[in-house]
Sequence to fold (149 residues):
Amino acid sequence: MGIKDDAVEVRAQGWRTLAALHGLIETELERSLQAKAKLSVVEFTVLDALSRQDGWHMRMQQLARASALSASATTRLVNRLEDRGLLTRILCAEDRRGIYTELTPSGIALLERTRPVHDATLEQALAEAQQVPELAPLVDALPRLHTVS
Fold:
């Protein structure tokens, strides 16, 4: 194995470690959010992304990017959340082809009740991951990934 091959293997190992951390966290969040609020991780992610927008709405394509879903998967997800009364779609006044997705009062209320569950579960999952030697360096790096300007 040459130097170039070693570099690829190091990156691959880093990716496997990152995937392991993500899997551990997502499994715990899924279990907790389903049990407490009947929400999936991706449903919570969509509600959370909408809550962080000025005006509490986003175009469908922005929502797809924020939730890491395809356009069709985002449409299906929005349909489910709309059927539950958690969000609504509105036409863009400037561009009639554009559709915004917006939280409803029920969506806001559910998100406010669910965010503490999400945050506590995330904190617990990260504490557990911190105890795994292979994952601890990633957990340690997380606070440095997002710098506030």
Observations:
- The mean pLDDT is 89.
- Residues 3-37 form the longest helix (35 residues).
- The two ends are 43 Å apart (CA to CA).
